[in-house]
Write a structure and sequence with these properties.
The chain is α+β, with helices and mostly antiparallel strands and about 160 residues long. Helix content is about 15%, strand content about 40%.
Length: about 160
Amino acid sequence: MLRKQLPSLLPFLLLLIACKQKAGRAPEEVAHDSSLIVITDSSNAGVTDSIAAVTDTLHIDAAKLIGKWIQPVAGLDKEMQGFQLRSNGTARSINMYTLIYEKWALNNDTLLLWSHSEGVKDTAAIVDTTIIRELSDTSLVLFPIKAAEGYTDRYRRRQ
């Protein structure tokens, strides 16, 4: 009777042995799973030092963004391109014929620009998300969140 049960028990025994060996591994042998890393939320942490905390966000007055913002076209310094932000929340492209800006919004120091492409194969709608690094009456410096650290787009106001 044992001979009849042995073939059906063999896979079970092999599985049991394999599981015991895996469970008995040293911690350094187990594959590292980064999805299990716990990141604590420090957004509510109090400042205990006597030095005041400085945030990395600017308070932006949306009214200062209204207008036309241009920059030189790469490789064609005499040609300009950019966008116009209107007070009603709409936007339009300047000298960019395939990129069509539709609307814009401001959230703290983050400028969101909705656009789509025309005349090209991929006409998907896009929302450009940029951090405003500098804003004055004559210049606007943006950091696209998908760009490499240190990269900025610089615009000047066009009258």
